[in-house]
């Protein structure tokens, strides 16, 4: 759900249901890094409802576009983390099995 | 009198102002948390893209920059626990990862318990609660979630049976978790609404409707499903007491109930960095080494019988601040934490 005005597309508040700090803080982090953003923040109106309000103000670009772009960036970051993790685990296992072979008779 | 005209140079061209990078003290503020004796300072992460615009430094996120700088090193990996380091990532993402590990990874746990007979001293609901918390050794990716309207079938339920009695005249027995037997063909308890079957060859309807035995699936035929640890005490029975029950396990997430959380716990901390501001020699060095309870400092001989203290194991520093307690030690040691290096366990 988006609260904004039809005339001024560059600022809006997005209300997401069934979310909590896990997504909202990471989105806020990627939004802040975008140079088109002048202000961004999130709040949780009540801790018992799983609802998050994200406020985005930009330098002219429509806020929904900027939000979508940062979601995309977040997905790319996570994919990179995942592949680096898999690689690191494989390397660790190889290194350890090599050590085991070296120590053996 | 002639005025001496000094040529006007802009501030940016002065020799000691670094261009394109932050001066060292600001760089420390941006990337390290200073832990003084009162409280940690500079804990916020300055992530706004225009934060350092007046210095000509671009603080915005560049994906390539992240791709180049991000490193992940696994320190320890066992079947049950793991320790790894993430370098170059922000606290928001590390925390999101931790929250997801605890709450949003699916596992299987016992949800419904059908009790046929319970004459022990443990109440029904306490027994059911204990059964729910037992960790099961099964891959949750092979199962689907079950909602309210679904019929329990072999794709979303695992059925266990527990039947234990203590004979009269013998001493107390403990009911351990290895007595939970897996029933790959589904429930054996008949539904109470069934009238006695007219046709003796048809199977009575039970609480679950398994179309095929779970044993026939290739993953399960050689690895039977059971609890992860066989020595968990479920209940204790005195002579003459009996427990007979059937337990159904379903897939769920830690968000709904902690029994579905796959980890015992997951935590992270930032890498500690201990910096000696001045040379610490001789007796002071011995004193410093003795002060630290986890032996972060070490003595190094620099010839002529003089000793010097060095930082040997900064990673094991627990930030007890013992080394900066007392007068004057502040000038010798500072404690800092690196903001983008997380040690995760």
Automatic annotation (TrEMBL), chain A:
CDD domains: RNAP_I_III_AC19 (cd07029). InterPro entries: RBP11-like, RBP11-like_dimer, RNA_pol_Rpb11_13-16kDa_CS, RNAP_AC19, Rpo11-like. HAMAP family: RNApol_arch_Rpo11. This is DNA-directed RNA polymerases I and III subunit RPAC2. Pfam families: RNA_pol_L_2. The keyword Metal-binding does not apply. SUPFAM superfamilies: RBP11-like subunits of RNA polymerase. It is found in: Nucleus. Belongs to the archaeal Rpo11/eukaryotic RPB11/RPC19 RNA polymerase subunit family. GO terms for cellular component: RNA polymerase I complex; RNA polymerase III complex. One of its GO terms (biological process) is transcription by RNA polymerase III.
TrEMBL record, chain B:
PANTHER family: DNA-DIRECTED RNA POLYMERASE, DNA-DIRECTED RNA POLYMERASES I AND III SUBUNIT RPAC1. Residues 81-344 form the DNA-directed RNA polymerase RpoA/D/Rpb3-type domain. This is DNA-directed RNA polymerases I and III subunit RPAC1. It comes from Olea europaea subsp. europaea. The keyword Chaperone does not apply. GO terms for biological process: DNA-templated transcription. HAMAP family: RNApol_arch_Rpo3. It comes from the Eukaryota. It is found in: Nucleus. InterPro entries: DNA-dir_RNA_pol_30-40kDasu_CS (IPR001514), DNA-dir_RNA_pol_insert (IPR011262), DNA-dir_RNA_pol_RpoA/D/Rpb3 (IPR011263), RBP11-like (IPR036603), RNAP_Rpo3/Rpb3/RPAC1 (IPR022842), RNAPI/III_AC40 (IPR033901), RNApol_insert_sf (IPR036643), Rpo3/RPB3_RNA_Pol_subunit (IPR050518). CDD domains: RNAP_I_II_AC40. The lineage of its organism: Eukaryota, Viridiplantae, Streptophyta, Embryophyta, Tracheophyta. Gene3D superfamilies: DNA-directed RNA polymerase, insert domain, RNA polymerase, RBP11-like subunit.
